[in-house]
Amino acid sequence: MEASLAFPNGLVIPLLSEFLEYAKGDTTADKQDCELRAFTRLSARIKALFPRLPILLLLDGLYANGPVMHRCRQFHWQFMIVLKDQDLSTVWEEFHALHAVQPRGCQRHWGERRQRFSWVNGIDYAFSNQGRHHLRVHVVVCEETWETIDAQGARLTTTARHAWLSSAPLSQDNVHERCNLGARHRWGIEAGFLVEKHQGYQYEHAFAYDWNAMKGYHCLMRLAHLFNTLARFARHLRDLYRQLGVRGAIAFIRTSCAAPGSTPRGCAACWPSRYSFSSNKRRRARRRTRPHRRPPVPGTVGLATVTPARGRVRPPFRYPPGRPVASLVRSNPCRNGQRQRPSAPTMPDVSWR
Question: pTM surpassing 0.70?
Answer without folding.
Answer: no
